[in-house]
Amino acid sequence: MLPVVLTIAGSDNSAGAGAQADLKTISALGGYGVTAITCVVAEVPGKVSAVHPIPPAIVAEQIRLIFGAFPIAAIKTGMLWSVEIIRAVVDTLSGLKIQNCPASARGHLASLCSESKIPLIVDPVMVATSGDPLLLPDAVARYRELLFPIATLVTPNLDEVRTLTGRAITSLAEMRDAGRELAAQHGTAFLIKGGHLREAVATDLLVLPDGTVHRYDAPFVPGVNTHGTGCTTSAAIATALARGLDLPAAVGEAKKFVTTAITNFLRWEKEGRTTDALHHFTQKRNR
Question: Which domains are present in the chain?
């Protein structure tokens, strides 16, 4: 039976990022993807023209219905957009009693926890590859307060790390320091994604709460203007965890998957515009 993976994310009509990219990733890696849509986003690679948030009550109802019908094996969050949607997601998950309980949880956070251990991957989507905002400014604090402490893993890119730490990251050593700082601060693992350094080798660092660091390297692929690599990475990790891999192995599988999807990118030409996209179906998982 295929493990069921829930993505709580925005809808990207170009299907390169968001829930559409998540579903392609989950399917390619041997899972069955289900969704709770948080926003409808009018976008193509390089441009976001409109964001329409879904009412928080509808986001919550999608999650409740899915849990009533499917045995959810892993969850990932993507674009959440607002304080109200973040609260609706956290409150609904707490009502379903699926949260992990970190040792650091106290007070109201501890009350959200249960014995269940469904992995929760938080991709703190803040800005699109185009530079367009995908999170309202006042929502960053709610990520820290509500989502990070109950996450199995948080997967920021370097722009998001800058927002979370208040400083730019320009080297591998700074990535490692930032990862250890964030993991210690929030009591959960962080995957610091280094592709934005644009060096010959794209390095990601998985930093565990105890400060242990796992390193993942792959060749940087130049000349490709895709979006959705962060969505694809977090969905791939969630799917690997749903299939029973441990966290370091799941991150390693996701790194290989994303690298292959970038390397075998798709490209269309229309009216002088070039559009690139990740190719999610160029590989088969070893069974």
Answer: 4-277 (3.40.1190.20)
